[in-house]
Fold:
Amino acid sequence: MTYLTKVKKVPLRTCVVTKEVLPKKSLVRIASTKEGVVSIDLVGKAPGRGAYIKLDKDVIILAKKSKALDKKLEVNVPDTIYDELMKLVHD
Structure:
């Protein structure tokens, strides 16, 4: 009698800037509430509309230039969010 081991599915998400499909853990979620409050959601459970972005300096700079997060979240993302994302990037 053989037992099948259950393979756990890895949740995948798409980066709004690069369009790469990556494991959820390798991306950061940016959440926006109905009131328009934007925050970095490190836990991935914050209420509201969410967008995922790859933690990479070039990707964050491109997101700011192209306003990819603004379009996806349908709000104006403040520069402080991009500054905080830059701090999260591991050099």
